[in-house]
């Protein structure tokens, strides 16, 4: 499955249901979510995050396909507002 901007946006707020976002995470590097990318570029592509703070944006990925855990995609920013790291978190 490739990255689908409209499909990603349609899953906003989907905390623990099935979500199409998880299948798109592997394509986010190719879409431009890479270290050094500005926060504005990330938000133009992914839309408003489900949760945010001064140094990170969090996008819900829904329930894990491999178990009963919740997954999210966390994008961390440096002090200049550029992507420092991005990763899937299970919790």
Please outline the helices and strands.
Blueprint: H1 5-10, H2 28-31, H3 39-46, E1 51-53, E2 56-63, E3 70-77, E4 83-90
Antiparallel strand pairs: 1-2, 2-3, 3-4
Throw out a few tags for this protein.
single chain, 91 residues, alpha+beta, 30% strand
What would you note in describing this structure?
The chain has 91 residues and is an alpha+beta fold. Helix content is 20%, strand content 30%. Strands 1-2-3-4 form a 4-stranded antiparallel beta sheet, with no helix packed on it. A hairpin with a 5-residue loop joins strand 3 (70-77) and strand 4 (83-90). The chain is globular and about 35 Å long. It starts with a helix and ends with a strand. The model has no long low-confidence stretch (mean pLDDT 91).
Give, in spatial order, the strands making up the sheet with the most strands.
Answer: 1-2-3-4
> Quick one: overall form?
globular
User: Mean of residue pLDDT?
Assistant: 91
In whole angstroms, the N-to-C terminal distance is: 24 Å
Please work out how many helical segments DSSP would assign.
3
Q: What percentage of amino acids are in beta strands?
A: 25-35%
Please give the number of β-strands. Answer: 4
Largest sheet: 4 strands, antiparallel
Protein structure class? alpha+beta
Element string (H = helix, E = strand)? HHHEEEE
Indicate the radius of gyration in whole angstroms: 12 Å
């Amino acid at each position: 499955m490739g990255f689908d901007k409209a499909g990603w946006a349609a899953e906003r707020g989907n905390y623990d249901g099935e979500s199409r976002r998880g299948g798109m995470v592997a394509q986010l590097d190719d879409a431009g979510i890479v270290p050094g990318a500005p926060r504005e570029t990330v938000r133009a592509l992914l839309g408003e995050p489900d949760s945010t703070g001064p140094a990170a944006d969090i996008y819900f990925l829904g329930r894990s396909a491999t178990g009963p855990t919740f997954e999210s995609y966390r994008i961390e920013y440096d002090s200049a507002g550029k992507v420092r790291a991005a990763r899937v978190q299970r919790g």
